[in-house]
Amino acid sequence: MTDMPSEHTEGLLRIGEVARLLNLSVGTLRHYEQMGLLEPAYVDPASGYRYYGSRQLSTLNTIGNLRVLDLPLTQIREFVTTRDMDLIQRQLTKQQELIEHRRRELERMSRKIDQRLALLHGALNADLDTISEIEEPELRCAALHERVNPTDAYSLGWHIRQLQQGQHETFAYLGNLGVGIAPERLAAGDFDGYDEVFLLLDDTDDYLGEIETRPAAHCLTISFRGTHGQAAPRYERLLGYMHEHNLTPAGPSREIALIDDIISDDPTTYVTQITVPVAPAK
Description:
Helix content is about 40%, strand content about 20%. It is α+β, with helices and mostly antiparallel strands.
């Protein structure tokens, strides 16, 4: 089949030449045509070859510049077919708002990753089975107040679904999901089961539902190798420490699996942390 220029194609470029010139694929140019973004200057009725001129090259430059701004092709089509300046201003303003929202979300996720990495680092380097006195800041949490007796993270699946119900975002339950024993039961030495399941919230969490604020407190903390099922002996040690130092529980315990079967299949690596707010005994 001849490829000699005719009166219709003089000065025009074939689709392959345009693709090479603008570093695009032939498939992309055909896709633009199918979407109504770009009409060839001429289509040879015999061969089906497509030819493009300066007007099409200008349109492709416009498309390329707007794609750099991540504007959707459907919006670009609306603009290139109208060249309405008010329209492009509205589209770019909306795109700027979307990008700003994504930027905030990425920053939020980055902070969460930093927090999880810090928790993992602390768990991997914890001085196990050693009681320490620490100052804990004010905490926000969502809590289910009911008796539970979990042995590992999977035992809390139903409670996780309850905490997640009605939320517009999915929470990552890594180092922020825990169980607690009421202070009255702690003081009485009753460590059989737990009185609440809680989800710790940071300042980036938009939780829909009742949120509790736990005040800043002086606390005792201990980390140990194992899961919730091995916690009772550590509570006994914490209670003994309180008696020795004339302290009493001042709030529910916070028992969190920092490393468990959600992130490791090796039980010898599991680490659980117990924190108990305390105050001087009267």
